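Hi, here's the filled form for the chain we discussed.

Project: internal
Contact: R.S.
Residues: 243
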Amino acid sequence: MATLYLSVIVLIPLAAVVAKALSQSPSALWRSISNAESVKTLVTTLLAAVVTAAIASVMGTLVAWVLVRDEFPGRSVVNAIIDLPFAMPTIVAGLALLVLYGPHSPLHLHLAFTRTIVVVALLFITLPFVVRAVQPVLLERNREVEEAAASLGASNLTIFRRVILPALRPAILSGAALSFARAVGEIGSLVLITAKVPIASIVIYNDIEQGVPHAAASLSLVLMVVSLVVLALIRRLGGRVAH
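And the returned structure, exactly as it came back:
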């Protein structure tokens, strides 16, 4: 039964996209993914996803650390807010970012329609993945090992680098993988603020609207393959680190 659900919900739609992309001739498929616009779109999208995943890994780990190890007023509120991007429609996030960083920004930061705002939007959407991946590991950790290292004269930096980080690394990599995958496919928070920045999800949407589904399917196929490869590599690396 579980296999049936997996096939219906995940595999069949993905297979339909692959079939659509491969229904054209090999030369047409190659032209669709190798032209200058497609290459620029793929490079921009993947670079934004990698940068987002890297920053989210650091920031998400720090946020998780503060939520677990520090006591401060309003911690429960902050802990709840972390999940807000999961529940909030992403188009609302795009609108909020447009108001905050658009032409009439109350902060006088005009970042809308730039590559910078793409990373900012993706961080807003993907940061919770790292926080929620790292937080349970921190909660379950026995602090006696850290206290023993401190009693032997290890500095805080050494304790973090040699004791804490190795235990957190699989969770950080898992969160980074989820952040990368979400960043590659994000569209809702970007559609209002990217304009001419070539982001794959928006280009695919425009291709469908313009009646060129083969081009959309070709670009989607490349993104699927790249995402699967990256996720497999990160999870394999995380498994090696865990052992």
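Let me know if anything looks off before we file it.
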